Amino acid sequence: MNIALGILGGLAIATILLVLFADLIVRNLGTILAWLLIVGVAVGMAGLVLLLRDEQRVRRAQRDPDSDPDPDR
Where does the sequence pass through the membrane (predicted)? Predict the structure, then answer.
């Protein structure tokens, strides 16, 4: 779920940037490719951070079952 939220957030940011810089993008196709690369890297990094946080939470819960804040997950 966290990854999906990260992707949706990245797409929302990309859409906002696309609207703000639409005039610039229309003039130069290379600009849109650069923005897509930047957004792709940002979404990928956010996904990796969320995965690492989830793995740390799982490891912490395996070490000490009382430390898991949400045992139903």
Answer: 32-52
Provide the pLDDT confidence category of residue 39 given band limits of 50, 70 and 90: confident
Backbone φ/ψ region at 7: left (φ over 0), alpha (ψ -120 to 50), beta: alpha
The answer to the question of residue 44 being in a domain is yes
Structural domains in the chain (count): 1
HEC assignment per residue over the chain = CHHHHHHHHHHHHHHHHHHHCHHHHHHCHHHHHHHHHHHHHHHHHHHHHHHHHHHHHHHHHHHCHHHCCCCCC
Q: Are 29 and 36 in contact (CB under 8 A)?
A: no
